[in-house]
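Quick one: structure tokens for this chain, please?
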Amino acid sequence: MLAPWIPDPHDRSFVARCLGDEGPPHHRTSTFALLSLLQRAMDLAPQAGAPSPSGPTIPVPLRVPPHVREALDPGEREYPIGMPVGALSRRFPDPVARAAAVESLVDGPPHHALANVLMVAMLDELLRRLGDGP
């Protein structure tokens, strides 16, 4: 499920651990349920098959204390998945509203931020398959 958005197996393993091993059990279970349902919807949508993520993405910053962030190499300051902004741009054409939505989606502990980013990626792909977007 993660491979289309995170090609590197090491990065994919890291994200899978954040989603499946971090946070309270009810969050992990609900995330798995929602991602599974989104995957099923993508499988049933026109043009079913492997997702072909395309279009602009924004980096998803690691939320760590400033002194920790400063010690990280620039490549380690972001999660190994970008959030597609195509569907969000169409839904929130106003840049201020879009920035607020993006900030809310990528904020929080790793489990929440990554689950949100993955759901947006899957919804972006699903909407593209349904004809809403390039």
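The beta strands are 57-58, 83-84.
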